[in-house]
Amino acid sequence: MNCRAQPPYSRTARARLSEYMRNKVAGFGTLFIHAGRAAWEWKNDTRAAVLSPEDQDPTAYDWSVCQLATPPVLVINRNACDAHLAATAKACLRDGARRVLVLQPPARSALFVAQGVTHGAS
Question: Which is higher by pLDDT, 96 or 24?
Answer without folding.
Answer: 96
